[in-house]
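Reopening this one. Same input as before:
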Amino acid sequence: MAGRKKKDYLFCSPQLARLTAMNVTSTRQRPALPRYPGPKQLKPTRSKGRGGRKVGKAGELVRQERQRRLNKGDISAYDFTLARREDIQDPYRTDDMALGERELWDELHRYHLERAPALGEHGVAHRMAVHEANLAYDLVLTTRGLHLQDIMLESLRDLSLSEGARMLTFHSHRRLLGIYHQEGEMLRLNDAQARAVGEDKAFIAMGRSLKQRAFSALYGWWNPRELLYARGLLDEEDTIFGNPEYLLQEAVSAAQARDAQTAALFDSDQEDDDDDDLHGYAML
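Same output, byte for byte:
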């Protein structure tokens, strides 16, 4: 909404986390937060000599600052069901997936803020308005997640596409489903946890990998065969999607090769244009 100030995000944990992430330049050197509440005192990491892990002074200062803020309560421990705690990027995430995830994340961001109450309001009425906005957002996330699973089934049954292409689409949808679920979980975070999430950039929408076991436990499936079987659309004797991970790897490799070829052609066209400009300049 136009005219909103940054402090408005304090009443929308997902948006506070997002705002924090946008203001963080890099989190590569930040140590992981404790998985559960109750910050522990982190001891200085010593060099273990040859063959051991060494931590520089800059990294140690970051750890100490992190611990200080934990003890002060500026940030707090958190845990997500589907997003990996470690900063591990999904190796099967293509550029198209990244673009689609960012578009969805931006759309959800706008939807939530449009329903959040103005900061100038206080008291019981304000808390009720915040609660209603979060309930509306949670309902949208749940409804869209269910609808997305129906779309996934339809795409798997589209025989006009190869198994590899369908597997690539399936993984893209699987990650979007993870984004819906993570946004819902962030509604239950307090401000300190939301700030920690933002500083870690621990968003599926920013490339974090999914936890396969946790995903399977939550939804009852992970790969196309399991989803089709769970919906009664596949017999155990069927050989469709016999090796889903291999299909995904091959499809991603092909997509990356196409992207690289397109980029090379674009660079070549740019160089030709530059040469034409230089030639025209020389003729003057």
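So the earlier flakiness isn't reproducible anymore. For the record, DSSP finds nine helices and no strands in the chain.
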